[in-house]
Amino acid sequence: MSSEIETTLLKRKADEEVDHRPPQKAFGLNPYLFLDGNAREAITFYKEVFGAEIEMIETFEKCPIPVDDSWKDKVLHASLKIQGFDIMISDGKCQGDVKMGDNVHLSVWMDDEDKLRSTFDAISGSGGKVTMPLEKAFWGRLFGGAVDQFGIHWMFSGSDVPDDAHESEKAKAEEAAAI
What is the largest CA-CA distance in the chain? Predict the structure, then answer.
């Protein structure tokens, strides 16, 4: 790996706050590639082949989900721009091993929470399944995953969720379950 690319990949400071929000827009749809520990190699390759611009790289080191020490420097989330298109890349999934063939997901961003929830419900219903419930993620935004009836993996991201909103949602669910 060239020193210029390595410098670009490693330029982020450990104490730097990361803004996981996509650019401000009402809707976005991007491919998300899950690789099995070789994301940096793929990033370097796409930079050389397509002239990709590296917009950000976040490692597992700052992730609140426990990971093996050997994965601390692996890529949790990277964003590349190739000819105006956004491509997202990760070394792996927090919920298990990467299975080649299931490693390309479509990532949907919506700033309308009601539309996000109804789209999530539509994709995960009708023969689909929820892989991760749509709820506030550690970075403060709605996030969830589903596989549709055709076997396509989807990731859903939405607007900021105030800290107290998640607690009131949880309390409502517990109250409903008690009835």
Answer: 62
- For β-strands 53-59 and 27-34, DSSP reports them as unpaired
The DSSP symbol for 72 reads T
Reported in sequence order, the residue ranges of the chain that DSSP labels E, i.e. its strands, are 27-34, 53-59, 75-82, 85-90, 104-110, 129-136, 141-147, 153-160
Q: Percentage of the chain with pLDDT > 90?
A: 24
Cβ distance 9 to 57 under 8 Å? yes
Q: Residue 135 — left, alpha, or beta (φ > 0 → left; ψ -120 to 50 → alpha)?
A: beta
Note whether 87 and 46 are within 8 A (CB): yes
CA distances from 127 to 121, 146, 151 (A): 11, 11, 10
Q: Give the Cα separation of 42 and 45 in Å (integer).
A: 5
Distance from C-alpha of 137 to C-alpha of 74, rounded to nearest angstrom: 20
Reported pTM: 0.62
Token couple for 82: 């190739």
